[in-house]
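Quick question, first post here. What does this chain look like in 3D?
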Amino acid sequence: MKQSGLFLTALGASFLSESALGFTPCGQHGRSATQALSSMPEPWQGDVVMAEGGIIQGCAIEPAVEGSLTEWKLNIDGVQADLGRFSEAIYKKVTADAKRQQFQGFRPGTIPPHLEPTYRAFAMDECARETVLEALQQNNVRPFDSCRSEMLLEQFSIPPLKSKQKKKKKKSKKKKGMDGDIVAVEEPVEEEEPEPQWRSFETMKEAVDAGWRPGQSFSFVAVNVKGQKLPTPKDGSDPLNFNN
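> Answer (accepted):
Ran it through. Tokens below.
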């Protein structure tokens, strides 16, 4: 995502005046993700994980309507695309900026607790939109100017909650005592628990309210994504198989 247009200037007064999750996506005149994140003491040097041929991993892109070359639907697998680290980098940057502000009634360097969900939601939203733009670029689709703000993000999946320590169930076994008599002895036995499943939510707000945190991965679907499919590159690659 080194050349993409992720902007981190939306955390101004208008953004903070909104409810914890009622923010508006960033505009198109701020700093890029690379510029913003490079100011961190130890900036994350990673990128969205790419497969051979330069195509983003974990992305399935298809026309929203059969035959369309301007409207798209994308399914993003956050584990394969490494969205956990990217969302964490965004969150660290915006909260570091926030700690330099003075919030009335709080000590310098303190972020009011009621604003913390806003920053988490902002990190998730920015990470998702930037990933979609990167996926379009990698699939030879040029996004329209309004693409970033008009795309709709839905069907979020987040990791399961950490499972609690397994309960040990006691099971009786018969053993011989010192005097040769048979006695019943209870031994602890661990109960098998089903493998935890990822949790699914229709909206980003529901996913954040359910406990998603920056640094965790997440998967989602993007619809109403507008962009122009460009001619097949000279190297003959055709990521979307439009020529088949």
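Strands lie at 59-63, 71-76, 141-143, 152-158, 168-176, 182-190, 199-201, 219-229.
Residues 2-47 have pLDDT under 50 and may be disordered.
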